[in-house]
Design a protein that fits this description.
Helices cover about 50% and strands about 15% of the residues. By secondary structure, it is of the alpha+beta class.
C-alpha cells in the first residue's frame, strides 16, 4: 500500500553563497516550463513520448530520469482531466434529463393555471392570486429553458472534445487564471501582481520518480542512512549550484519508521534469474507553500494481515448527514450494541469535514479491531443524485451535498488496512426500510441504528427479509403477496414515501410491536 509522508525542508546555505531554496525555486520554474512544453508536443502535436525523449533531454539538458518524472506527473494530470470529463458528461446528461422533466411538469402547471384564469373574473381576489402563481411559474419555466440550453451547449463541447481526443488543461488552475479579469475582488493591485502570483503557482512543485533498482530507491533524490536528502541538480544548472544539493538531518514527523525501512536493501531476482540488490521505490514531490518548501515521500509500505473475521458477527456503519450510526451484531445477526458518533458537516470547510470523519472512523475501526469483527458499509454512489441537486428541494440538496461518501469510504479502507481490520461492502437496497419495519421496535433501536443493523446483517448473505404484514403502516392497495420479497419491499418503500413524511413514519413505527 502506497503511503505518503511529509516533512519541511530547512533552508541550507550553499557553497556558492546562495541558499537551497534558490535552486528549488529555479528548478520548480524550469520543471513547470518543461511540463507545459511536453504537453504541447505530446497532446497538441500528437508526437510519441519515446520519439522525443532523447532530443528533449539533449535540448533542455536534463537526465533521462528527470524526463520520466516530468512525463509521469503530466500523465497523472491528463488522466485526472479525462476522468473528470467523463464524469462531467455523465452529470450533464443526467442534469438535462432532470431539467427536461421539470420543464414538462412546470408546463403542465402553467397550462392548468391558464385554463383556471380564463374562467375567473378580472380584479377578483382569486384572479389576482392565480395570476401571480402563473407569472411565477412562467418565470421559472423561462429560467429552466435557459439553463437547459446552457447545459446542452456544455455537453456538446465536452462530447466534441472526447470524440476528437482533445485534452484541455490549464496549468495553474482556471480559478487563478480568471482572477486577472477581477483584480480588485481578489485583492490584487495590478496585472503585474497577478502575473507574479500566476507564475509562482505554476512553478510550485516538481516530482522525482524513484525505482526499486536504484540506490535507496531513487537515484536523483536519495534518503541515506545519515538522514540526508541528496538532490541531483539538472545538468544546465550544475555550473551554478554543483552536481548535488544536500539537506542534512531530515526527519519525518510521521512515518519515520517506514522511511528508515526503505533505506535497507533486500535481495531479489532479475527476469533472467540473477540475484540483485533492490530497495523499496521512493518517489519524492517537492512542494512550495507559504512557509517554504516541503517534501512528500511516497513509499510502498507493508500492511498487517487482516486480523478480524465475520464468524462472531459484524459491525454495520450507516453514514448520515452529521453523524455515523454504528450497530454491532452477533453471529446470528442479532444486535448487541448500537451508538452514534457526531460528524459535523454543515457550514464547514472540506478539510474540517475530513478531519471529523477521520476522528469518528478511527474510533469505529479501533473498536472493531478489539471486537475482532469486520466492518460493513453500503455501496453508495450519489453521482446521479448530485447531478440533479438543482432540481431538488433546498433541504434535500443540502443534505446530499454534505454527504462525503467517496471520502468516507477512502478514509475507512485506509484506516482499516493499517490496523488489519476487514471491510465488506454490501448492496444498500432497502436497508433503511427493512431495518425500521423489522428491527426498530423489536430491539428498541433508533431509526438509523436499525438501518446500520440491517447493513451488518447483509454481510451474512441471509435471504431477503419477509415484509411485516401486520404493521400499523398502511400497506399498498395493490400488494401481491405472491411476488418475491424484493418486489414487495419495492412496493412498500414507494407507498410509505408517498403517504408518510420520514418523522411521521418513524413515530408510527415506534408503536409497531
Amino acid at each position: 500500500m502506497l503511503q505518503t509522508y511529509q516533512t519541511k525542508l530547512r533552508r541550507i546555505q550553499l557553497n556558492n553563497g546562495q541558499c537551497s531554496e534558490s535552486y528549488l525555486d529555479v528548478f520548480g520554474r524550469f520543471f513547470g516550463f518543461l511540463e507545459r512544453r511536453l504537453f504541447y508536443l505530446l497532446y497538441v502535436k500528437k508526437q510519441s513520448a519515446g520519439s522525443i525523449k532523447s532530443n528533449f533531454c539533449k535540448i533542455y539538458q536534463i537526465t533521462s530520469r528527470q524526463y520520466n518524472s516530468i512525463r509521469i506527473q503530466l500523465e497523472g494530470k491528463i488522466s485526472s482531466v479525462l476522468e473528470v470529463r467523463t464524469l462531467q458528461i455523465e452529470n450533464l446528461t443526467q442534469n438535462i434529463r432532470d431539467i427536461q422533466k421539470t420543464i414538462q411538469h412546470k408546463t403542465s402547471q402553467k397550462e392548468k393555471l391558464w385554463i383556471k384564469i380564463s374562467h375567473l373574473k378580472q380584479n377578483d381576489s382569486p384572479f389576482i392570486k392565480t395570476s401571480k402563481k402563473y407569472k411565477n411559474i412562467k418565470f421559472v419555466l423561462h429560467q429552466k429553458k435557459r439553463k437547459l440550453r446552457n447545459v446542452q451547449q456544455k455537453l456538446k463541447k465536452l462530447e466534441s472534445d472526447e470524440q476528437a481526443q482533445i485534452v484541455r488543461i490549464c496549468f495553474g488552475s482556471k480559478k487563478l487564471f480568471h482572477q486577472q479579469f477581477h483584480l480588485e475582488e481578489n485583492g490584487l493591485n495590478n496585472h503585474e501582481e497577478w502575473r507574479i502570483r500566476w507564475e509562482k503557482t505554476r512553478s510550485s512543485q516538481f516530482l522525482v520518480v524513484g525505482s526499486k533498482d536504484e540506490s535507496f530507491g531513487n537515484q536523483n533524490c536519495t534518503y541515506n542512512g545519515e538522514n540526508e536528502i541528496r538532490l541531483r541538480v539538472a545538468n544546465r544548472f550544475e555550473s551554478e549550484y554543483g552536481k548535488y544539493i544536500t539537506f542534512p538531518q531530515v526527519t519525518f514527523p510521521y512515518g519515520q519508521e517506514m522511511m528508515d525501512l526503505a533505506k535497507t536493501s533486500f535481495i531479489g531476482y532479475t527476469k533472467g534469474g540473477k540475484k540483485q540488490k533492490y530497495f523499496k521505490s521512493v518517489t519524492y514531490r517537492f512542494i512550495r507553500k507559504e512557509k517554504g518548501w516541503y517534501l512528500n515521500a511516497t513509499v510502498d509500505t507493508e500492511m498487517p494481515p487482516v486480523l478480524t473475521t465475520g464468524l462472531g458477527g459484524y459491525m454495520g456503519i450507516d453514514l448520515n448527514a452529521g453523524f455515523l450510526s454504528i450497530c454491532e451484531v452477533d453471529r446470528n445477526g442479532n444486535p448487541i450494541k448500537e451508538w452514534k458518533l457526531v460528524v459535523p458537516m454543515y457550514d464547514r470547510h472540506q478539510h474540517q469535514v475530513e478531519a471529523a470523519l477521520q476522528d469518528a472512523i478511527k474510533q469505529v475501526v479501533e473498536y472493531a479491531k478489539k471486537a475482532g469483527k469486520h466492518v460493513v458499509i453500503e455501496k453508495l454512489n450519489f453521482t446521479k443524485k448530485k447531478a440533479s441537486l438543482r432540481e431538488e428541494s433546498k433541504k434535500k440538496a443540502r443534505m446530499l451535498s454534505g454527504f462525503a461518501y467517496s471520502k468516507f469510504k477512502r478514509i475507512l479502507e485506509s484506516r482499516a488496512k493499517k490496523l488489519g481490520v476487514g471491510v465488506k461492502i454490501v448492496n444498500p437496497a432497502y436497508t433503511s426500510q427493512i431495518g425500521q419495519m423489522k428491527f426498530m421496535a423489536r430491539y428498541g433501536l433508533s431509526s438509523h441504528a436499525s438501518a446500520a443493523c440491517m447493513i451488518a446483517r447483509k454481510a451474512f448473505y441471509f435471504k431477503m427479509e419477509k415484509p411485516k404484514y401486520d404493521t400499523v403502516l398502511q400497506l399498498p392497495k395493490k400488494f401481491d403477496k405472491e411476488k418475491s420479497n424484493f418486489s414487495k419491499w419495492v412496493s412498500i418503500t414507494k407507498s410509505t414515501k408517498k403517504n408518510y413524511l420520514f418523522h411521521d413514519k418513524i413515530e408510527i413505527l415506534k408503536a409497531d410491536i
